[in-house]
Amino acid sequence: MEDALKGGITCLQLREKELPDDEFLNDALAIKDLCRRYNVPFFINDNVDVAIKCNADGVHVGQEDMNARDVRSLIGEKMMIGVSAHTVEEALEAERNGADYLGVGTMFTTSTKPDAEAVSLDTLK
Known about the structure:
This protein is an alpha/beta fold. The protein has helices spanning about 1-5, 20-35, 50-55, 70-75, 90-95, 120-125, and strands spanning about 10-15, 40-45, 60, 80-85, 100-105. The chain has six helices and five strands, in the order αβαβαβαβαβα. The longest helix has 17 residues, at about 20-35. The chain is globular. The model has no long low-confidence stretch (mean pLDDT about 95).
């Protein structure tokens, strides 16, 4: 991650689906400190509790997670909220619920999410 930060990334999102929350929190705290050294915003994927506990810059949620309005009620105004969207309808709903940004995709097929359907360029536009 430090190589990526040195290389010029402008945002880092930590996504962890397997670790218990206490281990995830420990990793998040260490990575947040690293991001602070490089002045790069730090986001937590899916886990609002860990985002709050580590004082992340933001949290990103998917369609199967909590909606942005509910996330905002937990985190207040200090953190940004990102929402994954795969359709125009999902994007508009996320915006209505207070999302600060959208993550749109999958744009290309990937081995990391073999069941994901690619979003067309027309849908993105």
